[in-house]
Amino acid sequence: MFSAPSLMLLVAAAAAAPVSPAPVDSAAAAAAARGDLDAVGTLAAANAEEELYLKARLALAHRRIDEAESQLKRLPQDCSRAVELGWRTAHASRDPARLASTARRYCQLGEPTGRACAEAELYSHAVLPTSAEVPRGGLELSLAKEAPFPLMLGTAGRVTMGVIVDTGASQSVISSTLARHLRLRPTQAGFPVGVLGGAGTAQAHMAVIPELKADGLTIRNLPVLVMDLPELDTIGISAILSPQQALDGLVVSINFKDHVLALRHSTPAEAAAAPAEFDVPYLNAGFDLVVQASVGDGPRALFGFDTGMEGGFSLSNAYAGDPAAQGALLLRGAGDEQLLAETAPRTVYLGGAALKPQGVCLRSELRKQDVFQLAGILGNGLWKDRTVTLDTVARRIRISRPQV
Length: 404
Description:
Blueprint: H1 5-13, H2 27-33, H3 37-40, H4 48-61, H5 65-74, H6 80-93, H7 96-109, H8 115-122, E1 131-133, E2 139-142, E3 151-156, E4 159-165, E5 173-175, H9 176-181, E6 191-195, E7 200-214, E8 217-227, H10 230-233, E9 237-241, H11 243-246, E10 250-255, E11 260-265, H12 268-273, E12 278-281, E13 283-285, E14 288-295, E15 301-305, E16 313-315, H13 317-320, E17 327-333, E18 336-343, E19 348-350, E20 353-355, E21 361-363, E22 376-378, E23 387-391, E24 396-400
Parallel strand pairs: 4-9, 5-8, 15-22, 16-21
Antiparallel strand pairs: 1-8, 2-11, 3-4, 5-9, 6-7, 7-8, 10-11, 10-23, 12-24, 13-14, 14-15, 14-19, 16-22, 17-18, 18-21, 19-20, 23-24
Helix pairs in contact: 4-5, 4-6, 5-6, 6-7, 7-8
């Protein structure tokens, strides 16, 4: 039931709103685009405005919100970069009231994707902050054993459905069918969302789910993208949960070997003592959760970290390098088709560890980010017998082997 590769990549990239790439004007901007973030602050920018903008975007990638605010205040407040930064900073601070005003201003300026206009409409109504509640001692949820991604049962209103826990989704998603059952009122404004690893697009609108539950977990006031998800609806999956968005403030552990999702409140001492095969910080490139890694002989770059993707990884054609391919695979979804080349597996280097993927490496054209671009996506084939822990407070990802 879950073997269709078209489904895997649709899930992998859903909820990542595409944005128009900014021109690469300088050595600093080029370093940001290729994921060499250490070099951004040491190389020359095109001008003072770009330097402030890049420093602010780098600070937001590391969630240093105060630093980003400081750079923002130094920009001319009527320039387009300042308006965009104000909107992105409102997202980082998770402030609904501020998001309403900054989205409205960015929409009026002509934000290229339409996302800001949808958000301006959504947040023009009073929207309470999102909250995720678990018992004091934490909880464990069973995941479907037959699914190649973390899949749990959840309820919204009177509807019971499958929910995918997907770090590759920058925002939680529900199907249009579920939105109708819950009598939600999605925004009239919509915008294109990249799917199929960025090769296709689907139209998304926005809404707020008052309450989503799953065996002791309660999420309230969750903003979601509303999309047509026919391939998921037919197998009873109506929601894709972005843990870094919906479960902010919790430690989320996915035990792929035993099919268990554990949620608990973050304890610094416990996190420091937790055994891990590797432990890396995660960043936010635009709206995507990413890590710095390298594949094969390639340089260190930004890769999406995606628990919604069955395979080991996919690479952009630019990063994969050689044109040789062993075969081809046709993927379908979002009214689009894409022919992806298959290449031999390559070693992934992440956090000082060398990980070899299970299965083939797929090369695809990944959608463009604005100042950041992804070299590829890392998926569950890399950690299918391990436990992945996403600490949304320490902003780190730990991968550990099952204890014997």
